[in-house]
Structures are given as structure tokens and as C-alpha cells.
Write a structure and sequence with these properties.
The protein has two helices and no strands. The chain is mostly helical.
Length: 85
């Protein structure tokens, strides 16, 4: 699975302070999710069902918190940016 290409903002579309802060928070959340992903992989490979479930719930809470934080800091874009929930 490959990551989607990252769009580089044009000079006319510089991020706001709130957007920069939100991106910084996302870096932290992504770092946590990377660690959780590695632990989830190890637990699944070892068939440790209890650990898999615990890691899935931790990952879900982390991702939910990241989405909530992002939505509070960055308003939805007008040009077709979908916002669910």
C-alpha cells in the first residue's frame, strides 16, 4: 500500500498558525501510531489475541483524538474537502 502524494502548498496558500500547530500535533500522533503499529504487528504475529485487541483500542483512541484535534484547529476546505462525522 503506497501513501498518497503530498501536495506542496503554493506561495499563495501559506498555512495559518492554527494549521501549523495542528500539523505539529499530527506529527506527534503519527509517531504514537507508528509505535502502536509495530506493537500490533508483533502481537498479531505471536497470535496474542488480548494484546491485539488492546493495541487496536489504543490505536483507535489515538486516531480519534488526532482527528478531533485536527477538526478543532483546521476548518474544512471549501474546494471539495470532504468532512465526515
Amino acid at each position: 500500500m503506497s501513501a498518497a502524494p503530498i501536495a506542496i502548498p503554493s506561495a499563495a496558500a501559506q498555512p495559518t498558525d492554527a494549521q501549523l500547530i495542528a500539523c505539529d500535533a499530527i506529527v506527534e500522533f503519527a509517531s504514537i501510531l507508528c509505535g502502536e503499529s509495530a506493537a500490533l504487528l508483533a502481537a498479531a504475529a505471536a497470535a496474542d489475541v488480548a494484546a491485539v485487541e488492546a493495541r487496536l483500542w489504543t490505536s483507535r483512541r489515538t486516531l480519534t483524538t488526532a482527528i478531533h484535534s485536527w477538526r478543532e484547529s483546521v476548518p474544512p476546505r471549501e474546494e471539495g474537502g470532504a468532512r465526515h462525522g
